[in-house]
Amino acid sequence: MADGHSFNSISLGGRGGTNPGQLRVHSGGILWKKLGGGKAVEVAKANIASLTWMKVPRTHQLGVQTKDGLKDIHHSYDISSLTNFFQSSFAITPEEKQLSISGKNWGEVDLNGNTLAFLVGSKQAFEVSLADVAQTQLQGKNDVLLEFHVDDTAGANEKDSLMEISFHIPNSNTQFVGDESRP
Amino acid sequence: GAADNRGSAKLSGELIAYKSVNDLPPPKDLMIQIDQKNEAILLPIYGTMVPFHVATLKSVSSQQDTNRTCYIRLIFNVPGTPFNDSTSSKFQGSIYVKEVSFRSRDPRHISEVVQLIKTLRRQVTSRESERAERAT
């Protein structure tokens, strides 16, 4: 297992904010370890469905979409060597995604496995994992509310944690007609 | 611009918080931030700071429970509400973020955020209505 690269100070993002740690990519997969031990997240090569790059302020963000629909987000600085490595070892070319920065609150909802992405003009504004959704509620005819689990441990390094998001789906929207359980 | 609409709803078609990713303020802690210069509210959603232009916001409120935990609720403009009919016809087929709420451990930070948002909203709304008046 001498192959691969290690990167320090890569943070793992998720529902509870970000955690600093070390990222190791090797021919068998991707491994992230929390700084000072403890939590580790491993994704085997066979389980990687797709990879994405997104430019965020000051840095880049790597998204790992697994076949179970799980989503890990890593912040990284050096993208070209990693991209090469992913291509040669996993035969996966990371797709580039763009972050929506226009500040609009209307767009499209894209459901992909367990992830819900909100897109503004084909750029991504945010993504949430439906695994963290405690409850969905239909409010009135046009609104869908997602309630997130309140988790005290996950929010340890985060001051403000997300509790609820609701989406308004106008009658003119044809994408989700007849699907009343999820937006 | 179009002078037949009123208030902040008029902005909806042309508002842009940021032009480039590099214009976003450097991420500090993951907490709600207000960028006065770019008229944006930045919300921490899944480890990313997500900008919303202040003109998309309808109202903001906060409350505190007995355990000193603070809650903040942001409600955005959606079609079908007064003054917003222009948006509904323009962006047909879109899905809107209507409401976002956060829990916070820092009541002082939350009351500061609410204050900043209210001030910023007032500034933007009065500037836009002035501009609309001048255009007529």
SSE blueprint:
The complex is a heterodimer of chains A (183) and B (136).
Chain A: E1 5-14, E2 17-26, E3 29-34, E4 40-44, E5 48-56, E6 59-66, E7 71-76, H1 80-90, E8 95-97, E9 106-112, E10 115-120, E11 123-129, E12 133-139, E13 143-148, E14 160-168
Parallel strand pairs in A: 5-8
Antiparallel strand pairs in A: 1-2, 1-7, 2-3, 3-4, 5-6, 6-7, 9-10, 10-11, 12-13, 13-14
Chain B: E1 33-35, E2 40-45, E3 48-53, E4 57-64, E5 70-76, H1 85-90, E6 95-104, H2 107-135
Antiparallel strand pairs in B: 1-2, 2-3, 4-5, 5-6
Structure description:
The complex is a heterodimer of chains A (183) and B (136). The radius of gyration of chain A is 18 Å and the shape is globular. Chain A folds into two domains: 5-97, Roll (PH-domain like); 108-168, Roll (PH-domain like). Chain A contains one helix and 14 strands. Chain A is mainly beta and 183 residues long. Chain A has an eight-stranded mixed sheet with strand order 4-3-2-1-7-6-5-8, covered by helices on one side. Chain B has 136 residues and is α+β, with helices and mostly antiparallel strands. Chain B has one domain: PH-domain like (Roll), CATH 2.30.29.210. Chain B is built from two helices and six strands; from the N terminus they run βββββαβα. Chain B is globular. β14 of chain A pairs antiparallel with β6 of chain B.
> For the largest interface in this structure, which chains are involved and how many residues does each contribute?
A-B, 52 and 59 residues
How can the largest sheet of chain B be summarized? Answer: 3 strands, antiparallel
Give me the CATH fold name of the largest domain in chain A: PH-domain like
CATH topology of chain B: PH-domain like
Question: Given the helix and strand composition of chain A, which structural class is it?
Answer: mainly beta
What is the CA-CA span between the terminal residues of chain A? 44 Å
Number of helices of chain B: 2
Specify the helix fraction band of chain B.
Answer: 25-40%
Strand order of the largest sheet of chain B: 1-2-3
Which H/E pattern describes the elements of chain B? Answer: EEEEEHEH
CATH architecture of the largest domain in chain A: Roll
**Count of spatially separate domains of chain A:** 2
Taken from the alpha-carbon principal axes, the silhouette of chain A is globular
H-E string of chain A: EEEEEEEHEEEEEEE
Indicate the proportion of strand residues of chain A: over 45%
